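Possible regression after last week's pipeline update?

I re-ran a chain I had predicted before the update to compare outputs. Posting the input and the new output here so someone can diff against the archived version. Not blocking, just want to make sure nothing changed silently.
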Amino acid sequence: MCETYVVRADEPFPLERLWPFTERLERYGIASFGWGAAWVGPAGAIETYRDVRAFREDATGRERVGGVITTAALVHLRRPSRLSTIGLADTQPFLDRAGRFAFSHNGDFRRHRAWRDRYRAAGRIHGRADSEVGLRWLEDEWGRGEPPLVLGALHDELGGQANVMVLAADGTPYAYAGNEENPIFRFRLDGLDLASTGIYSIDRSLFRYVAPAATERSRVRTRSVVAL
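New output (post-update):
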């Protein structure tokens, strides 16, 4: 029951410009068990920040990350299906071990157990949540096709209700809509292009409570991908 979004802009901007939207997304989207962000740094590499506290409770982190200047980012607000998985190892977004992308997941991967056993045997599992299994699968498949096709294949393999957000190292954010219980919407806000989950309301309440000033609003079709 997490909430997550990606953002891109034509010109560099400080991430704190998104903090009012992020605070409302956490409040109305019932996510308050950790948060994190990934962005393209000045050297062109993906950088990340994660904390087990709620976004609203992490003043130091908000200030630190808010001062970052970038053109593309991914933000994840956590509400795990199993509270026993709360911990930094399961806090998102995850960073690909080769630095090719950052990854976040909203929903559940129902066919994750066999893959988890395989990755655990290889020493590649560090947490307890199903989201990390999705990361490991994507690490192995990344580059074997265009990102939209690979993200669709990830959902085909692991199943369940699953939205996936990815920030690629080339600065392209991707949003895969695969959770019918929590739609993804694309829109413009304060000059920025966003794709965000919809606060677990299958109507358009995201725009009433979280982003009332949004323009160019559209719902991302289920089992499709948008690249910002």
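Follow-up from reviewer: compared with the archived run. The longest strand covers residues 3-14. Marking as no regression found.
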